Amino acid sequence: MKPHWLSISFLAALLSPDAQALQIKRDTPRDEPQYGVNYFDQKINHFPDDERFTRSPLSNGTFKQRYYFDASYYKPGGPVYLYISGETSGPSRFSNLQTGIIQILMEATSGLGVILENRYYGESYPFNTSTTDELLFLTTNQTIADNAYFARNAVFPGISGDLTAPSTPWILYGGSLAGAQTALSIKVHGDVLYGGIASSAPIQVYVGYPEWYRPIQKYAPQDCVARINKIVDNFDMLISTKKTAAVNQFKALFGLEVLTDHRDFAAAIADPIGNPGFYHSNTWQELNWNSTYGSRNFFYFCSNVTDIDAPEEITQVDYALANFTNGEPWGTQNASFWANTQNSATRSYLYTSCVEQGAYIDAPKEGPTLLSRVVTTEYEQQWCRWAFPPGSGSYNAIPAAPDTGAYNSFGGFNLRAARLAFIDGDQDVWNGLCYHSELAPPRAQSSDLHPELLITGAGHHWDSYGIKHVDAEPQFVREAHNWEIRTVRRWLRDFDEWKGAKGT
User: Fold this and answer.
1) What φ, ψ does residue 161 adopt, rounded to 5°?
2) pLDDT digits over 420-439, tens only?
């Protein structure tokens, strides 16, 4: 039926050279004061007794790790809030000190906020390049050890007194991958780090993660979802029945006939929704309650897909392949790119995915899908082989598939620690890997020592954003922030007892 196929023409329009007229670009964050950069001498290797690392001649020494801090609200005796910057640069996280969750907590408790740039991101690289051997020290264990070592030794120029842990309460916050690193830091180094809030934290991983699309299937406009599902079904039918002419004609509608690999094409046209690896559009994941940092591009895309008043030159495309569908109208792989050893966030993130995190976004095996079924975990695993081919390292080699067992060995869905809070959004594409996942076991009731909160109608770590006026925020975000303030204040009330028990 025509309503099912109307969307293909608008997908084509959206991805065409004229597509900018159909999109609104992400807003530029507000102009706030910047922070001076500081450098910390971080250990390259925190595990001198682990042969995995010591067999490399690169395991000795230190590297310069960037950090930034804000003492605007600090009063002697206040806590230190360590924001884990995750898979991006430190400066890209400044908003969290200025108006976001760290600002909220600093103001509420007279604390100091600090952003520590993750190893192998921003400008905090141990080496000048990122060869397979040089990436040996990019592991979850090394990263969370950075946080503890920094907390024990950090200096804040211009601030008098010793603010190091564990004599001072250090409370971590991170969202997404940084949320998982927050949780694992508290789990492993809870004798140093007093507490943490893990937001949208993937604590259980699998090699493949088709559940990424589940919230979109459930919560996105259903006429948009239905049209895209139908497009994918018919494209996959053409592939499975080997109708080569129809497939090529279909690709030409988008000007993408150069993509001979069907998976590249499938990933390209899924970009506005979210596709495997490194998509370029603002997708469902980039939706945000705060218009300063979010983007509504996903909804603009769906509006185009479902436009019932489209001009004739667009709607006529719906019938272009009707002869291949019993009269019904139709609604890159680059090895040298991946092999580039220059330092980059893309290469660092890919490495950790290949080694231990997995979570490759692939199409579901059953039921409707927004991503073509030609995309399997092998699609992304191939990038690993191109980026870190066998024999490319003398002391390091990636496994044939991600060793998710090593990552999940921290506890997976059962991970818990004293003063570790989990907060998630029920419409987050990554929630299937988080504390509140539908795949997780039944949860005990929240407590002061093990608090948890699921934000209704929220996406990916929405609580990390703020507007410097909590009472003016949307109700569920407002109450999440109030919950975080209460949680931290309860923890701080018991700090002296914890400190005394440690004898520090």
Assistant:
1) 90, 170
2) 999 999 999 999 999 999 99
